[in-house]
Amino acid sequence: MRTGDEALLTDFYQLTMLQAYFDEGLHGRAVFELFVRSLPPERGFLLLAGIEQALDYLENLRFGADELAWLHDSGRFPPDFVDRLAGFRFTGDVHAMREGSVFFANEPVLRVEAPIAEAQLVESRLINLVHYATLVASKAARCRLAAPGRLLVDFGLRRAHGAEAGLLAARAAWLAGFDGSATVLAGQRYGIPVYGTMAHSYIEAHAREADAFARFAASQPDNLTLLIDTYDTEEGARRVVELAPELARHGTRIRALRLDSGDLLDHARRVRRILDDGGLPDVHLFASGNLDEGRIAALLAADAPIDGFGVGTSLTTSADVPCIDAVYKLQAYDGRPRRKRSEGKATWPGAKQVWRLGGSAGDLVALHDEAPPTDAVPLLQPVMRAGRRLAPAEPLAALRAHAAEELARLPAALRTLDRTDSTELWPVRISPALQALAAELDREAH
Amino acid sequence: MRTGDEALLTDFYQLTMLQAYFDEGLHGRAVFELFVRSLPPERGFLLLAGIEQALDYLENLRFGADELAWLHDSGRFPPDFVDRLAGFRFTGDVHAMREGSVFFANEPVLRVEAPIAEAQLVESRLINLVHYATLVASKAARCRLAAPGRLLVDFGLRRAHGAEAGLLAARAAWLAGFDGSATVLAGQRYGIPVYGTMAHSYIEAHAREADAFARFAASQPDNLTLLIDTYDTEEGARRVVELAPELARHGTRIRALRLDSGDLLDHARRVRRILDDGGLPDVHLFASGNLDEGRIAALLAADAPIDGFGVGTSLTTSADVPCIDAVYKLQAYDGRPRRKRSEGKATWPGAKQVWRLGGSAGDLVALHDEAPPTDAVPLLQPVMRAGRRLAPAEPLAALRAHAAEELARLPAALRTLDRTDSTELWPVRISPALQALAAELDREAH
């Protein structure tokens, strides 16, 4: 995205509503909250990500000259409205949960308070950023829980949904506990460790597999992982054993072998034996190929001698849960709480706070100005005031450490991959005052 | 993406392989093909998209100064290798199917012939672009087939996986037969019709729903769709009937009402009756809210009086099939065909052509230099030579017309939403010469 460009990364109705707000002189302050309506059965919890990108978007939001010219030429808006957009800035206040936090349904993770036009325009992009990053962080957290102590690398750029998805996924996965990503640009942009060695095409470009191994070793003596399944996995492993003494004479240590097809458990066992028998007990095994947290858990439950996993498509598309019901809803306007009552989509009104009660007590969602519960931690913290961030972005490593603590604190039943109903394991209660407010709004006639 | 930036939008192993190719002096010409290994049961065919973006990427690919500096500073590569990347350009030849074409498993949709380093580096991004755009075009085609003659609008930016996904989805959906998108930037960038009116938050910002309707009508007299389900759908419809005479006096015509929650069939019938009884038979009904091709088909099968549909998350995440097995494989190096034989992942070797045989005869995948079958159409056409496109990009409207013709030509059994095994309905045969070549390569020792 270029600066200016991102202002049009919105739904058209945001602009028609903005025009109506301008026409009516509706400039009151609105409170919008971003939350997930319900968790799918495949997710016992969610891990928050994408807040940093959301704040960056808000802070830099403006309409570029090309975008204004296009809006003008579109004939869909009166010129005076387009002129006003030239000065558009986000001047609001934002509260957010810290990235890497565990959260549940009906808990606002981001609260925006701003003149209604500003808070409205940003809806589409805020959901777009936080929804996806959170999907991937939550999926990655499950992989991390399934593979304690094992190396986990994001391999999913190629089937992520576009470039930004690949980048956001690499960041979200690392935040959630992955060890790194294969995506080079994510390394440059976010300082994430970058992993990768060779593909089948490299092997195939050589007349013989053994030649390919030898040549690659000569070129990459300090980072040598060899892919052994291009033709026959065990045959590949035996070639490595044959090659190893010659490499050792040149001071080259083989770090790992990668398996990428077939029955990974069976191959890993056979290859491990070939390596051990061949005097290479220190060479690690790294597996990839259509892996997800469930397959990883099954491999480790069967004691597969695998030291690391590349997780690709299932991670970056969050393949079993490619979308969740993340929404951004008006909760108050001009000091008055609002409640949408559409069937199956009713919201809890008013600006809110989420309190983490500690232990197995779960969370309490309350109005933001209610008295704090005893010994509870407020999860929504001020992060932006009058359109400016209150502090520089936290280092990603700090957020990653926070995520690890969050996962460690989860009750055991939520740390499994089983389908769970988190509402029993981690109750999220709605405060009596909030319930009373909702009932009161329902009683009012419209 | 900035220019220069996109060169790092690749997997790290592409760079380590490039370094090895440089070190070894492996500069021979490689043939890579992009294809889908198998279709999931939810898809009887795929509709190709993303080729224009892929060619644009290839034509503009270079390493920017920041990217080179980062690679240098990473310490992962020798300086002379990084220096050589400064001059890196894609100088290869490309064949591709036309966007909007229907295709099936094992059919190359893109063939790249270039010095191996060039053809290798681009793997990750080429798959990233074509895989996702094709997913969405294929999903959108199913929606189009389910809703003949109805207005279809992409509403899915907010839950698309990042910004680029939202944009590519809007383009792919329009190409496949949607009428437009809510995504404003897609309108600017691709000239796609843009749709949208109001959200629940607009209604809620007003004390009374009737006030919101009247104010919006005053602001948007030429494009008036009113959202009626914020509080009570039928009550909302009755308010519209009450308001209509006053609007008519000001020359404002209500174009449509939008339903977004609850039982859409039931609401549409009730609202249609309210409108018809209220003298508004010309006001259209537009439905949205968790729709996909299956729900649309069910609504229309029940004769729901709905004139148009907004399809969001299920479209832009291709929710039932968020990924397919799209790959980019080395098929020849230095004039010699290559075959990967990994279990379950074996490839057909050599540069190939896909012939469409006509009628119900299906397709033939053959070596590119075999004699053409009688009356068959070659689907892969030259689109780039020596790194330059052979023609300017086709207008998107022309590709959209092509997609419509392709869909119209499909056999009836593939035009349904049923789970089908396309291999029986649209046979894709492998030519005897290609089969013989594969067998011959398998016989050779490695």
From TrEMBL, chains A, B:
Domain of life: Bacteria
Processing and modification events after translation: Transiently phosphorylated on a His residue during the reaction cycle. Phosphorylation strongly increases the affinity for substrates and increases the rate of nicotinate D-ribonucleotide production. Dephosphorylation regenerates the low-affinity form of the enzyme, leading to product release.
Pathway annotation: Cofactor biosynthesis; NAD(+) biosynthesis; nicotinate D-ribonucleotide from nicotinate: step 1/1
CDD domains given in the database record: NAPRTase_A (cd01570)
GO biological process: NAD+ biosynthetic process via the salvage pathway
GO MF terms, alphabetically ordered: glycosyltransferase activity; nicotinate phosphoribosyltransferase activity
Record-annotated Nicotinate phosphoribosyltransferase C-terminal domain positions: 373-437
Keyword annotations of the record: Glycosyltransferase, Ligase, Phosphoprotein, Pyridine nucleotide biosynthesis, Transferase
Catalysed transformations (reactions): 5-phospho-alpha-D-ribose 1-diphosphate + nicotinate + ATP + H2O = nicotinate beta-D-ribonucleotide + ADP + phosphate + diphosphate
One Pfam family from the record: NAPRTase_N
Domain Nicotinate phosphoribosyltransferase N-terminal stretches: 8-130
GO CC term (a single one): cytosol
Transmembrane regions: none
Domain Nicotinate/nicotinamide phosphoribosyltransferase, chain residue ranges per copy: 152-320
EC number annotated for this UniProt entry: 6.3.4.21
Function according to Swiss-Prot or TrEMBL: Catalyzes the first step in the biosynthesis of NAD from nicotinic acid, the ATP-dependent synthesis of beta-nicotinate D-ribonucleotide from nicotinate and 5-phospho-D-ribose 1-phosphate.
Family to which this protein belongs: Belongs to the NAPRTase family.
Family annotation (NCBIfam families): NAPRTase_put, PRK09243.1-3, PRK12484.1
Identification of the protein by name: Nicotinate phosphoribosyltransferase
